Amino acid sequence: MFLPSRAAEIGGVKAWRARTLRVPCCPAWEKEPEPTRRSGLTGVAGRCGAVVTQTPVPGSGEDTRRAARATALGARAGGNGFRPLALLPSLHPFYAALFAGLSGCLTRELEDRRGFLFLPVAIATGAALYFGAAHEPLPYVGLVPMAGFLGLAIALRAHPLGFHMFALLAAIAAGFAVASFQVQRIAHPVLAAPLQSVEVAGFVEAAEQRPRGSRITLRVTRLGREGRVAKGATPERVRVTLTTTQPPAIGEHIALRASLAPPPGAAYPGGFDFGRSMWFDGIGATGFGLGRVQPAPAPRPLPLDLRAAAWLDATREAIAGRIRASLSGMEAGVAVALVTGLRDGVPEPVEESMRISGLSHILSISGLHMALVATTVFFVVRALLALFPMAALRFPIKAWAALPAALAASFYLVLSGAEVPTQRAYAMTLIVLAGVMLGRPALTLRTLALAALVVMVLTPWAILDPGAQMSFAATLALVAAYERWGHLVSAPALIGAADTMLGRVLRVPTRYIAALLLTSLAAGLATAPYAAFHFQRLAPLSLLANLAAMPVVSLVVMPAGLVGAVLMPFGWDDVAWHAMGWGIALMVRISDMVASVPGADRGIRAMPMASMVLLSLALVAICLLRTRLLLLAPLCLAAALWLYQTMPRPDVLVDREGRTVAVRGVDGRIAVMGDRDAGLAGRLSAEGERGRAGASDVAAAAACDPLGCTLRDRRGEIVALSRDPNSLEEDCRRASLLVTRHAPPASCAATVIRIDPRSNMEATAAFLIGGEEADQDRAAWQLESAGGRRTRPWEVAGGTNGAPLPRPSPPNSGAVLQTVPNDPTDSPDVAP
Q1: The model's pTM
Q2: 502-548 pLDDT, tens per residue?
Q3: Are 800 and 794 in contact (CB under 8 A)?
Q4: For a Cys-Cys bond, which of 307, 314, 333, 466 suits 345, CB 3.0-4.6 Å?
């Protein structure tokens, strides 16, 4: 282990003082009589287990570069350098030793030139601070601290700790400023309040078939009659669900009547904010189509980007038609999804099976598919060039092969629809291939840091996207794992028969299986916290499923799909599609076998945001740190688990329309009353239930009649759902908590959650406060809304007066939580 040190004079040149290390017990070193030299950098001599000295090799030229770097890192540590410990002379010896050890670890990390790896982490931290703010910050306010910290970093550029500390703070401020700038750049209106039976016209921008209809995204050209929606408040895009299974073509200008509403918020407090995600996709309203879709004359020519999208959609449909002509059923749907990105034909049982088994990432075109396509083309082209000895010996055929691989990745990006996850994977692939062209290492932590930096600068809201989080977490874990343990994948070390016939025969498959095991284990462990946080489910058998299915995907399914796409213009693609279908059938069979194992689908209750942040910090520490700072990882992990266990669980969950109420009973399980189909899955998923027999059995305890339903909470108090105004008086007298759409009496003693359907109400959670105390006649309730304070760009609904919707405040016991309609003339509901 290397020990940190200060600068010293070595051979008349100022450089870092010689450091010591313990020679590992390597048999190859025991046989060498002379010191081992690596890249002319150091000379190492000694027996196994001995402590030796590492010094720069004279005459290699590296001593001069090392001296220059020593100066840049603050070689004058013994002079008037930046020494924060000197400012604390009265520290207790324990804390002084702690700070000294921390300073030494940081110095060692800086010596290893790993500071750049933390730049995207700092940018992401700044972006997270922006998106997590309770109120919208002032525009570009992040530039002020960024300039101040950057100036301090430049002033302390000769002192490593001070320079890197303030540079890191400047990067955090820069991430805050970049996020603010990008959000202001893409800001667009959001529908203020629900509109029923309003006329909508626009260009079809996206269309997809669904199990019971279709869904389209319209680029709006007209919304409502003249004056119905104020100018400047019309959403730029709306997403409409249709009953027809054949959606209109992309690029077509249509008109229809629809019921629209603002994008829905989180399904429960602390859950995923669907409205925010839609806002970053440019969508300002969602709704349902009423009646038939009619072609309409366009007020302006078709935009150029929609022309390209229409051509691309026609190409994808043509390829999908060729695949369906060769395959049928489930194989055709999965093949079309993998080649073109159109997932409409994938049966729901197949998707659910792959989610349970941990293979759902195969259906979503991302880094795996992009890497398989680029890698296949790269090695095929390189092998073909290697057939010509003159070219192989005289020219850099490896760099040449990277260019066709980049072109293939670009074609696959366009063909698959260029979704956001595919764009991120494409950027990462291009950076890797650019490194190959320049003769640099293909996939390193620096490459990943550069790709993450590009993504965070261009789309800082990617930090909120589950796909982006899981993609970068998996890639970070894979690169770090191969940097540390990649040498263990070598077949001789695994089977111990490198010089035998058996060793030579088993070398390649053993190495492949070992690499697959390391890949699946690293990626699975890295993405599990994010899957638990966003989807409240774990796939404990995903390692087994990936070990069995990934060889089929990597060696059969994706190569056959690539060959089929290449041979399609020549008419010889049928054989490739059949081979791809055989591989898909085998993959789905493996998925079904794993999903059928008892315990394969493990639901967990919702995780707090603080736990997710701590788990992310633990992952970063494990992958990026090399010194004793690694101890931060288990500390973060322990804190995350403690917060998860101590987080209060809601006793009552109410959906945004007031039709469904979930109540935690005496046994701690969730019971549901009301419309069990309205958001039931999201509520039960948030509490770790899978919505199967157990939950439905408990729900039978609800007492319902035409006037409403009642359930008892964990304290035994009544929670009532009132559907009729005639039941309010009795419910107010008997219930501790009342959920209703109607105005309660002024003398109502219960805590009331009133859902006004004419406003943009959010889902609500209720927590019992002091419910276990025997001296209280009635439990107090603390209410928490899933919505924010309506001050962020994706939350503000610009109505006819441009004012944001009023938001409820959490009331105390006996208070009423309700919202005021934005416009009395608006329709009271949006029929699904």
Answers
A1: 0.78
A2: 666 777 777 777 888 888 888 888 988 998 888 888 888 888 898 89
A3: no
A4: 333
